[in-house]
Amino acid sequence: MAVVIDKDLLGDVNEPNIKAINYAIRELQNRKKRLDKLSDYYNGKQEIEKHEFDNATVEAANVMVNHAKYITDMNVGFMTGNPVKYVAEKGKNIDDILEVFNQIDIHKHDIELEKDLSVFGYGYELLYLKKTDPISVRDELGNEKLTPNTELKIEVIDPRATIVVCDDTVEHEPLFAVFTQEKKDLDGNTNGYSITVYMPQRIVEYRTKMSMEVSANDPIVYDGENLFGAVPIIEFRNNEERQGDFEQLISLIDAYNLLQTDRISDKEAFVDAILVTFGFGLDDNEDIKRLNRGAIEAPPREEGADIEWLTKSFDETQVNLLSQSIENDIHKISYVPNMNDEKFMGNVSGEAMKFKLFGLENLLSIKKRYFFDGLRRRLKLIQTIVNIKGANDDASGCKISLAANIPSNLSDVVNNVKNADGIIPRKYTYSWLPDVDNPQDVIDEMNQQDAETIKKNQEALRGQDPDRLELEDKQDDSSENDKETGSNNNQSHRTRAV
């Protein structure tokens, strides 16, 4: 989550300001508790682990049903199951940018980034240049020489170790970013921190001794140029409030786990119940042996003697109803449907499925808007680097689209495409088809398929009735000659008229 400060307090934004850097680090430390809790809930380290059962003789079952992970994994799959599509504005080129995306497997990167957005409410990615083997080039005289070479990389970085500082204008333009990394010795003990400050034109790395905050005496281990011309750490938001997808559901998740834990613990307490005798006592020797063998009937010593278990009765139906109610609230508030619900049957129509997923689609439409803000900044930074290397890309006005990975009825889609043919251009209707990145490619393939079909039909006719095909060819030639003669006659008439 970005920190907002007055830009005038920094002076030169490309000169490290120790006071501002430490202020950002303190803000980052203040948020760590919240972020750690969200991470723990996703990883299954939830509040139910601390629960203790009232019965000292029965150990608490501590059942944990990880709804937090379910909600995040489903949202990540719905959101980034299909890759993001980029289409350059008419007359512009982004081929080199798309080539970079292919090389770094940007789809996998986006999945990891969306997971952070879903868990923490925001996420960060770092763009950097990695040195590779130098390339051999020849100068004008033909002499071979080696020139340095770099490779553009993009990595998702932990929001618990990263913070971006923006100005206090309405645009919140990034001023600098700080990335912290704990350093340990070979015994596993912390012996300082690496603090990297990313400024628009400069990158500086400090090495602290013990504290995370930077002092003027801490050595600078790296000081280099930032070729991106802007802060190369991009903040992505999950929503306006920067909240995780399950953050508001933690109380419901805890209540569900507590209820399930108590149900299991009650079952164990039921098995380990107290045995009560009426009208007689048990001999320490023979009677106890009989009980251990399972003979627990009351000995016929006195009239009215009896023996039974002392148990706590509970209404399992009411407990199950409460459990379902809490689970329904979890899915209702998160907008993530319960795919194990009997209402989600395999024979429902595409339109019926759309209504069941209406809340989820609304949620994803909001998430996409904020996600695209970060993608546009990513395009701008990559454009700077590829153009430095000699390309001529222009990502301004680039169209970004993302199809949610939601089940669709393919037969309904195909019927809609067929019914719209002749009414809506095929370039638009073919885009309705799933897994179609470029509708024009489908149009070209259909044209090629039609041409091959016509050719096969002609060859089939030639094989069945060659005389007929020869006659049709002669008629076609005759028609062409008539057209040419008519055209010459018309030209002659026009000449005379002139």
Summarize the structure.
This protein has 13 helices and 13 strands. With 498 residues, the chain is α+β, with helices and mostly antiparallel strands.
Secondary-structure-derived class: alpha+beta
Strand content: 15-25%
One letter per element, helices H and strands E, the order comes to EHHEHHEEEEEEEEHEHEHHHEHHHH
Mean of residue pLDDT values:
83
Low-confidence stretches: 489-498
Give the strand order of the largest sheet, numbering strands 1, 2, ... along the chain. 1-5-6-7-8-9
What's the end-to-end separation, in Å? 81 Å
Largest sheet: 6 strands, mixed
List keywords for this structure.
single chain, flat, 6-stranded mixed sheet, disordered C terminus, 45% helix, 3-stranded antiparallel sheet, 498 residues, alpha+beta, 19% strand
Ordered list of secondary-structure elements with their pairings:
Blueprint: E1 3-5, H1 18-42, H2 67-80, E2 85-87, H3 95-104, H4 106-120, E3 122-138, E4 144-157, E5 162-167, E6 174-184, E7 190-198, E8 202-207, E9 220-225, E10 233-237, H5 250-271, E11 274-278, H6 286-292, E12 306-310, H7 316-334, H8 350-356, H9 358-388, E13 399-401, H10 410-420, H11 426-429, H12 439-464, H13 466-497
Parallel strand pairs: 1-5
Antiparallel strand pairs: 2-13, 3-4, 3-10, 5-6, 6-7, 7-8, 8-9, 11-12
Helix pairs in contact: 2-4, 5-7, 12-13
